[in-house]
TrEMBL record:
PROSITE patterns linked to this entry: NLPC_P60
Stated family: Belongs to the peptidase C40 family.
Record protein name field: Putative peptidoglycan binding protein
Origin species: Kribbella jejuensis
Region (Disordered): 1-41
Keyword Hydrolase: yes
Gene Ontology terms: biological process: proteolysis
Gene3D superfamilies documented for this protein: endopeptidase domain like (from Nostoc punctiforme), PGBD-like superfamily/PGBD
Length: 283
C-alpha cells in the first residue's frame, strides 16, 4: 500500500508547539517583563524546523552562540611609562617595560629587550656618574638630555677611554667653571676681578690641578687635539677664523654648550656653541 507523506507548514508547526504554553492577558505582560534588566540574551538560539517525518513531527535544532572574545588587558603603570613618548622624557625606573625602555637601552649600548632590569639600572648609574649627574638609576630630565646627546654623537661614558683620575679632573674643571659664573669680562684679566677668554680657562684649569699657557693660541698648541665625537665635558674648545688661527677658547660643557668669558659687557656664562669652525683640545 503506498505511503502518502503529508508536509506540515513551518508556521503551523511552530504555532501548534507553542500555543498551549503561551501566557495570555496580564500573565503575558508579566511573562515579557525581564527579571534581570540589562542581562544579555541567552547564548542559545533554538531553530525549530517542521519536517514531514513520521506524520509531520517538528524537529528542533539547538546551536550555542560563540563566547565573546576577551577584552584587552589594561596596561600596568610600569608598562604605561615604558610606552610614553621619548620627547616627553618620562621618569623610567626598575621594572618598567616598553619601546621607550628599548631606546634607553640602545643609548646605553645594551641589548634592547625592552625591560628596565637590574643590568639597565647598573649601566645607567655608571653613565650618569661619568657625566657628573646624580647616579639614581632612573631617567630624570638631565639624564634624558645627556642620553639623547650621547645617542646622537655615538658617545657613551664621560670617562670612556680615560683613567678615573682624568675623569675626576674634568669634573673639577666643570665645578670650577660654574663657580665663576657672573664674573665680569676684562681684557687681559686672569683673576676673579675679571677674565678674558684664555685668562678664564687658565684660572679654571689651575684650580682643577693643571697649568695652561697664557693665550688661546698657546693653549691650543699645548693640548692634544681630538675630534668632536671624542670630546668630553671639561675639555677645551677653540674657535678658529677663516685662516685657521685661534681667536677664542672656552671649556666644553657637553651638548653643544660651553663655559666662557666672551667679550666686554658680558660676564662669564654657559652658552651655546655658535659655529662649526671649532676644534677640541685635551690636556
Amino acid at each position: 500500500m503506498p505511503v502518502t507523506a503529508r508536509r506540515t507548514p513551518l508556521s503551523r508547526a511552530v504555532n501548534a508547539e507553542s500555543s498551549t504554553d503561551r501566557p495570555t492577558g496580564r500573565t503575558l505582560a508579566k511573562h515579557r517583563r525581564s527579571s534581570r534588566p540589562g542581562t544579555p540574551r541567552a547564548a542559545a538560539a533554538v531553530l525549530s524546523v517542521g519536517l514531514a517525518v513520521g506524520g509531520g513531527a517538528a524537529l528542533s535544532l539547538t546551536t550555542t552562540a560563540a563566547p565573546a572574545s576577551a577584552s584587552t588587558t589594561a596596561m600596568t603603570a610600569a608598562q604605561q611609562r615604558g610606552h610614553t613618548s621619548i620627547p616627553s622624557r618620562p621618569l623610567l625606573r626598575l621594572g618598567d617595560s616598553g619601546p621607550t625602555v628599548k631606546y634607553v637601552q640602545k643609548a646605553l649600548h645594551l641589548g634592547p629587550d625592552g625591560y628596565f632590569g637590574s643590568s639597565t639600572v647598573r649601566v645607567l648609574k655608571k653613565f650618569q656618574a661619568s657625566w657628573g649627574l646624580k647616579a639614581t638609576g632612573t631617567t630624570d630630565k638631565k639624564t634624558w638630555g645627556r642620553l639623547t646627546w650621547a645617542a646622537k654623537h655615538k658617545v657613551l661614558y664621560g670617562n670612556h677611554g680615560a683613567s678615573s683620575g682624568t675623569t675626576t679632573f674634568r669634573a673639577k674643571v666643570l665645578r670650577e667653571a660654574a663657580k665663576l659664573k657672573g664674573t665680569p669680562y676684562r681684557y687681559g684679566g686672569t683673576t676673579t676681578r675679571g677674565f678674558d677668554c684664555s685668562g678664564y680657562t687658565g684660572y679654571v684649569y689651575k684650580y682643577a690641578g693643571k697649568k695652561l699657557p697664557r693665550t688661546a693660541r698657546q693653549q691650543y698648541a699645548a693640548t692634544k687635539h681630538i675630534s668632536r665625537s671624542a670630546a668630553k665635558p671639561g675639555d677645551l674648545v677653540f674657535f678658529r677664523n677663516g685662516g685657521g688661527g685661534v681667536y677664542h677658547v672656552g671649556i666644553y660643557a657637553g651638548g653643544n654648550m660651553l663655559w666662557h668669558a666672551s667679550k666686554p659687557g658680558r660676564p662669564v656664562a654657559k652658552a651655546k656653541i655658535w659655529t662649526s669652525s671649532i676644534a677640541f683640545g685635551r690636556v
